[in-house]
Design brief:
By secondary structure, this protein is α/β, with parallel strands linked by helices. Helix content is 58%, strand content 11%. It is built from 14 helices and seven strands. Strands 3-2-4-1-5-6-7 form a seven-stranded parallel sheet, sandwiched between helices. Helix 10 links the parallel strand 5 and strand 6. It is globular, with a radius of gyration of 23 Å.
Length: 349
């Protein structure tokens, strides 16, 4: 039920032994803290700044379940094609049934069988998705190689992600995927919001808190996309982010604990809004696509101006840590060898 990564949906299955699969899953899980950091150095060594600026922009589409991520990805496929943009699509959702609605060059379902993972390990839906991502992350170097081969021919790489957003943003495998892409390509996160459901001030702040936490955890350029504007306009959200008093007025009739908590959190989020790229989009009709393209270009600029320097500092810090660990290991080895030698000499004497 594990197959090699490929560029199409016609690969021949290669069944791996059960112990190999367990090792792959444990390797991905164990890579939580160091996996992304260790990948930092390798990717940076391969891509210099001039080469990186010629590479396509990677858009990782994420958001809460039901926000319309896959529909947004389909709309981007249509809009980018109409504009003559050469685009490469990656599906990272193993639980999708049927057709995706866009031509995925790389599909996680070619590598991991979601149904078989559930059956073999007796897992529920979320656990199976997590295990699939863990297994896929162990082969993500193959995905990167496939995309890099086409890098000179592409303008965008768009990744659709699972509906359970925590699988991407709060798991070791999700961090490996994001870091690996961000090290090799200019990368941004497109956070999709269900606009009709965010019309309540409390729900709106909940969405923005999630967005804020993801942005600071990933440290990637971030675009908030208020989707389904054909159902409900996003003007209220833009006003609430621009005008703190307008948001407070919307909460005037709410004297509950949640209302008080929402007021406090909105004050904390006010600075976050100032730095935020936000757009309205209807994935159903295509309204707002031009604004989305402009936001992507701004986010690409932010990658080089802000994210890349942070990344370089992380690389340098990780290398210092690795060098210190290497020196410490050598010192322990020398001490052990020295002690062994003296002990051996004493025994012979």
């Amino acid at each position: 039920w594990i197959r090699p990564c490929c560029s199409g949906r016609t690969s021949t299955r290669t069944v791996l032994p059960r112990d190999a699969m367990a090792a792959a899953a444990s390797t991905s899980a164990a890579a939580g803290g160091s996996g992304s950091a260790s990948g930092v150095g390798g990717a940076d060594d391969r891509v210099d700044d001039a080469q990186l600026r010629r590479r396509p922009t990677v858009i990782i589409v994420c958001g809460l379940a039901g926000a319309g991520k896959s529909t947004v990805t389909r709309r981007l496929a249509t809009a980018l094609g109409e504009r003559g943009k050469r685009t490469y699509f990656i599906n990272l959702d193993p639980a999708v049934r049927g057709e995706l609605g866009f031509a995925a060059s790389i599909d996680i379902r070619d590598t991991v069988s979601y149904a078989n993972v559930m059956e073999r390990y007796t897992l529920g839906p979320n656990g199976a998705i997590m295990t699939c991502l863990n297994l896929f992350a162990t082969r993500f170097d193959q995905v990167l190689s496939l995309v890099e081969r086409r890098a000179d021919e592409l303008d965008y790489v768009v990744c659709d992600t699972p509906g359970q957003i925590e699988m991407l943003t709060w798991s070791a495998s999700g961090q490996i995927v994001m870091d690996t892409l961000a090290l090799a390509f200019p990368t941004l996160l497109l956070y999709v919001v269900d606009t009709p459901r965010a019309a309540s001030p409390t729900t709106f702040v909940s969405n923005m808190m999630y967005a804020c936490s993801i942005m600071f955890k990933s440290q990637l350029p971030f675009v908030v996309c208020f989707n389904k504007t054909d159902v409900a306009r996003h003007d209220f959200a833009m006003e609430w982010m621009r005008d703190f008093d307008a948001f407070q007025e919307a909460l005037d009739d709410d004297d509950s604990y949640m209302g008080s908590f929402t007021r406090s959190m909105s004050l904390a989020l006010d600075e976050f809004y100032r730095q935020l790229n936000a757009i309205g989009l209807s994935a159903a009709t295509g309204a707002g696509v031009d604004k989305a393209m402009e936001a992507f270009e701004r986010a690409r600029g932010e990658y080089f101006d802000e994210y890349r320097p942070i990344l370089e500092r992380r690389i340098a810090q990780r290398r210092r840590i690795d060098e210190q660990e290497h020196r410490s290991q050598l010192q322990r080895l020398h001490a052990d060898m020295g002690g062994g030698g003296r002990g051996g000499g004493g025994g012979q004497g």
